[in-house]
Each structure stands twice: as C-alpha cells, then as structure tokens.
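Hi P.,

Sorry for the delay on this. The queue was packed all week, but I finally got your sequence through. Input first:
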Amino acid sequence: MTSTLTTTFATEWARWHAEREQHLRDPFGFLGLTALHWLTDQPARLPELPGTWWVTDNKVFITAQPADRLEYDGIGIAGVQIITPAEGAPGLTVRNDKRVLEVIQRTGKYAVRVHDPAAPTLAAFAGIPAYEPNQDWVITGRFTPFDEPKTITTGAVIEGLRHHHTAAGTIEFTVGEVTERVVAFGTPGALRLLFTDATSGVTTYPGARSLAVGAASDDGTVVLDFNRAANLPAAFTDYATCPVAPEENRLRVAIEAGEQHPRLGTTL
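Then the structure:
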C-alpha cells in the first residue's frame, strides 16, 4: 500500500510539473518577453518598436502609420490610439506582426512589455529545475482567519513598484522543531502563500516562491504541499514586475522542496 501511495504521489507531482513547464512554453508567455519599456509624458520612439508612445492624464497614447503595422482590438492604428490599462491587471494587447506589445500599469506607472515567439529565452528553455518530490514536505497547518480581510503591501522585483494583496488570515505549521506563522493571501476557500526560506538565493529564487494552499477545512486545517512551491515569472525573466515576499513570510527553515532557481550561475 505504501509503495502504491508513493507511486501515485510521484505521478501526480510529475503531471503538475509537466503542466507548469508546458505553460511556460506559451509563445506569448513570460519566457517570450524580450523587453520592458517604461513610458513617460514625452512622446518617444521605443527601441525596436514602431510608433510613438507616451502617457497623458493616465492614458497611453500611441501614434502610428499603416506602414508601422500596429493593431489594437483588431483594427490597424493609423493616427492616434488611446488605451487605458488597469492597475495591476494583465495588460492590453497591441499587435505588431508576430509580436504582442502588452501595455501595463504598475504602481501608477505605464510600460510596454514585448512578447516575441522568437525570443531566445523561449527557444533555450529546457525545463524547470526542482527538488525530487518527497511526501515529507506535505505538511499539515492551521489557518486562523482575520476578523476582516487585510491589505498587505509588498515591494516588487523592480525598485519603486508596490503590490497590494488581500490577506485572509495566518497559517501556522511546524517543520522539524521550528514553528512558523505566515500570512495567507486570497480567501479561506482559495488560500495561497508568497514566501522565502533559508534556500532562497542559494538553490531557489530569492524574491519569493508561491504556493497554492487551497481551502481550509471547517476546523482550520490546511495542507501545505511544498513540493508544489512554484517560481514567479521574475525567476525566468528580467522583464516581469513580480512581488517579493512580505516580511512575515520570510521563513527561518529551509524548504528543500518545489521549484529551484532556473537561472543559477547566470547574470540576473
């Protein structure tokens, strides 16, 4: 029976891991990013992009000619196009031939992220390094909800940016002889963690890893499967704007489970 359970556990983890890798192979995903250009209130040409781009009154303006082959909402831009991306949301899409120019708003600033299916990082992707799955890293914890949800503000991998997260409560769990208490984001029915630990910056990405926890039971019990601790996009590219872990979630213990740093030994 134990052997069967172990095999099933490893198989389910391998399926999850393969889905993670397949998601990253999306030609318009984070591995396809080739640039991140911040916009100002001065009309400017952006490196290797057609058109002129700037921000006025919290709106992004683009001027282009038909020969620039810029398209928004299925219509070619000929003259001036105004678009208004939402704070913290997925960007609005401007197409340029095979590329997607994603216009985003982060902490009141506006930028254009370039997604290119021909990106070298996408072509070179050989998978996500990870610790071998180990059932010892499936840990039971206890969720304690806040009386009311709280907003927790964290920094980002890009200096000056901020992320605002809705925190539902805390989760307490024990690793060896160490008891940790972390802030859980989301809702009691769909909890998630953003954390660092003693492996961060050594074998795992230093900014944060995320862990989907799922729902708390009626008595507050939650299951933390650290084998599924996942990298944020910023672990794979310099053109992401991901959050870093809040101070409360910087664990003292080493979580030797889940995804490892995909760019160890490279210049970040």
